[in-house]
Every structure is written in C-alpha cells, then in structure tokens.
Amino acid sequence: KTRDTTNMAEKLIVGVAPALITPRKGDEVNVAAVPALVDHFVGAGVKGLYICGSTGCGFAYTTAQRKQMAAATCEANKGRVPIIVMVGGCPLEDAIELAKHAEEVGATAISSTVPRAYDSILGKEVEPPTQEESMAYYKAIAASTKLPFLAYFFKPPSSDVKEILEDLYAIPTFVGMKYTSYDLFMFEQIKAYSEEKGKPITLVSGPDELNLAAIVMGSDGAIGSTYNIMPKMFQSMRDMCLSGDIAGAMKMQKNCNKVISTLMEVYSFKERPLNIMEGLHAVLRSKGFDVGSPPDSCLTQKFTDEKHTKELLDKLAALDFTVE
I need a surface site. Which of 4, 53, 120, 217 has the fewest CB within 10 A? Predict the structure, then answer.
C-alpha cells in the first residue's frame, strides 16, 4: 500500500524499528530464516523494520541478493509493520533498480545514504559528497518510485537547517530522516523548523546509545542496530519516558548502554564500528535463529570463532537484567 505522502503529519515510524541484520548461509542470503526473524520482532512489539542498511550490510551484497532480502521480508511481514528498504550505498543505477523492486514487493518506504557513505565507514580515504551531490542522488532515487522517501542523514557540510530541509522538501515523496549524528541540537532544530513550516517530518534517531536523549528532543522513533537484541528494552524505555517515568527510562538507557559497551569491547569497535554486527548475529544464533555471520568484508578480523561468542554471551549473562 502506498502511503499518502502529501500528508506529512502521517508518521512513517512511531517507536522502535530494528535495522534488521541480514541472515546469511555461506555467501548467500538465508531467505529461509527471514520469516522467523520477522515474527520474532513483530511479536516483541517493534514498530517497523529497516532492511539492508549498515546493520544488514546491504552494501556488501549484490543487487540480486538485496532484492531477495527485501522480497522475503515483505512477504513474511504480511503488512503488520512498516518495512523500509535502504536502497543506497551503491551506484545510482543499482539504487534505482532496488527502489523500483521495493515498490513491486510491497515495501512501505525506501531510504538511502549519501553517496560513498560506506567507503568512509570501511576506512577508505574518500572525498565526502557535497550537499548538491547528495541531493541529486536522493532526488534521482526518489523520483523512480511513488514510495515515501526517508533520507539517511549524516551531518552534511552545511549546518544550515533551513537549507537542508528546503532541499529535501523539493523531493515530492520526502517524509523524513533517519538521523545518524550525535548533534542533538541540530536534531531538535530540524524538528522545530519542519513544524514551523507546517510540514512536520518523521524524525527518527540513529545512535542507540542516545535513544533517550533523542526522545527528549522530540524523536518520533528510532532505527538502530542493537534493537536486534534489545527490542523490548528500547520500546519499554520509550514508553516509560513518554508516560512520565523518567527515572525508569534513564535506568533502562543505562542498562542498554551496558550491553552496547560490552559489544564494543568484545568486537573491537574502535577498529571498525561494523565489527559489532557479528555480536548481534551471535546473540541471535544463541536464541536459535539461523542467521550465520556478516560478510567478511564488513569486519576487520575473524570474530566468528567460539572464543568471541562465548566471551560475549558470558558477559551478557552476568548482567543483572535480561537482555531482550
């Protein structure tokens, strides 16, 4: 079903939406594992799923494999929660092909990173895109489909909130941002300006460790990696905060951050943030999901040995709360 993107007051995501890992067997997407994952997250109360983004290592898969993941997720979902397909992180012609396919298989919306985003994440020396280059990429992708477009927001060269939003408003299907920056002042300013314009957008936070702070700043929801293993905790945190239980929400964020810091420690986050994706896969494997491990190209070293898995699971089991 295509959403009415002329009505920006209709929020795309309200609450927690895991940036879903991509289950893998050998060098292929394990589509047979997708239905159980989707059922698990819907049962946990998530408000949407974001697929083939950084957490799903979409950039490491072929266009055909990304299509497989999108089709399998939409089929398993059966319209229960919004499905947002990240189609960027690749040449423009491939991104357009992925966007059109997302519409064909029943996705709720599409999203995209700026050009060359994953080159920098993988430690390659690249020139960051200009705002003009990013907007041209976004506009071409969005124009290829009628689906709502969620911009993946890295802090751009321009810090002019009005300039950024006016450029995005020029995209007819633009509905909001996945905001992946620690600058929560700009986050709040984007929300305020969109409301002043009478064009409120869906504004979702990216950094899991700042989820609560983003809620206080007015986030509509959150899309993140560790929601793969803590969907109930993060949704509970949001519910606590919005119901006035600030102390409970603060305690929940601290607990979530203990899990995040454990992942960072065991999987050498400082070498490459994507390393923690193996930790997410490991926890899901321990729960019986046949998800395999992320592609080797996402990691700086082999973390799939029993040593790392045991270290992570032992440390999580030693916490004084249940990771869920």
Answer: 4
